[in-house]
Every structure is written in C-alpha cells, then in structure tokens.
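Weekend entry, working from home. Most of the wet-lab plans are on hold until the incubator is repaired, so I used the time to fold the two sequences that have been sitting in the queue since the last round of cloning. Logging both here for the record. First:
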Amino acid sequence: MRMLLLALLPVVLPACIDAFGDETAAQGTALGTFHVVGTQTANTCGEGALGATRLWEFDVELARGEGALFWDNGASVTEGVLAEDKVSFSIEGRVLVDMRTGDAPPGPPCSVERRDRASGELGDAGDDVARFKARMSYAFMPTAGSHCENLVAGELSFAPVFAALPCGMDYDLTAKRSAPPPE
C-alpha cells in the first residue's frame, strides 16, 4: 500500500515516465519538457511518510491552450487554469486510494483521498518558456466511513504510513526546460 501511494504521489508532478505525445499537443501549444526540483517546505504527515523526501526531482511536459495549462506527468494529463496574463497558473487534482478493502485482515476498509494543488508562474507569456516556478501542496484525508487508525503512528498501528491523518505536504518547485517542444 505504501508503494501504491508513493507511486501516486506524483500525479501532478510528479515521478512519471511517459512523454507528452500527440494527445497533449492536440490540447494546446507544446512548451517542452521541464526538469523540476521540489524542495519540501512543510510536512505534517511525518518524516518519510509515503516515501516522501525533502528534495524531489522529476520531469513534466507542458502545453498551453486558451486559458489553460496542460501538465503531463507521464501518467496523466491534468488541465489547469492559465490566467489572462498568460504566465500565472493553477492546477488541482484528486486521487482516491484504497489502502485496504473489506473486513479481512489486517483490518476494516480504509481509503484515503489525496488533493493536489499547484500554483505558479511560467517564465514567459509566449511560446518560448525556459523556466517556471510554483508551489505544490498535497492534502491527505480518510474518506467518509474509512477506518484508517492503524495506518497512523500510535498504539493501534503495526506498520504506520502517516504520523497523523489528515495531513499535508508542501513543496516549492523550480523548473528549467530540458527539451524543446517537438517540431
């Protein structure tokens, strides 16, 4: 379960493999591939929770459309909002993860919702964007009716995943274009 959440942690980030491809380019003007460095600025989930580290690097491909920024992390393309200034953007996402199903051991059903939010600024209002900066946050909370007590550090936990639930993590992101958009 910990590995599943770790693999999903990068939904808007990040840790993904596949490339933009024709699907994303059709959704806007490709801006290129960016190498992103994230520095953790806050973490109420606990040191190392979900495999999170203080420094995090990944690649993302961006495209810009009318009032939209498309963020391709390799696993999915997320459409964000691009402000009228054509540099300010915001992106939101949501993932539900079944940590445990049924009443079989090791316990009753538990699912966790992760809400992702990023806001930042592209380095240029045109199509030749060389960099961007952003702030990304992740919020984790058990879904209604979930029993996730044994995943939180304490008397009931045998393999804690979180120091607390609900909890969150914040990252400051800086990115430089590592590959130009396809021609």
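Second, folded right after the first finished:
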Amino acid sequence: MLKFYRVWIGIMHALIGIQFFLAGYGALGTGSPDESFSLHIMNGRVIAVVALLGILFAALARAGRKLVGMAAGVFGLVVLQSLIALVSVAGTMPGQIIFGFHAVNALMIMGVAEASGRLAKQLIAARKPETALPVAA
C-alpha cells in the first residue's frame, strides 16, 4: 500500500504541474475571469479529492503518524488555497496582496507533497528485508 501511496503522490505532482499551466492559461485568457480560470478551478477540485484520498491511503499503508500527518498537511494547504481565493477581493490592494499568497501556498503544497513522497520512499526502503548471504557450513 505504501508503494501505491507513492504512485498516488506522483499523480498529485502531475496534477499540480497541470495546475500551474492552467493558472498561466487562465491569466492570459481572453474571456471573463470565470471562463478563463474554469479549468484551473476544476483541476483544483480534483487536486482536493486526490489530497483527501491521500490521507486515507497513507493511513491504510500503516506508515505511521508522520506520513498521515504530511498527507493531511497537503489537504489542509489545498483547503487553504481555496480560502485564499475566496477571501481575496479582486481589484483592491489588500485583495491582491492576499491573492499573492495563492502562488506561495501552491509552492508549499508541492513541497509538502514532495516531502511525503520522499518519506514514503524511505519507509519502503526500511521495510525491505535485508538480503543475507548464505552462511557456509
């Protein structure tokens, strides 16, 4: 299950990469902001579901509280990402400053997801049985 979690985090990374592309696509879109960022918003919802399921998969892997906590941290940051977008008021200086944290938080999501993937890799390596050489009698 731990190997599955690593694959799941790989999917999360791919979705985050797509999310950055869609943010640029939306920023340069010609329609209204709702139309331009519709794919970005939709992919963000997919990321939220993937992050939520990541908590479940980390728990099922029985990898310990640290990995489950990191998975929960990813989900928490994804929720914060949506709150930042909701709270910021477009066209105002405070709103733009708050919205600037949207990009910073996205980098934090990537970092915590990467750290959880590395931890899972270490745990997989630690679970491998030692390959012992046969003892000659």
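Plan for Monday: verify the second prediction. The chain has a mean pLDDT of 90.
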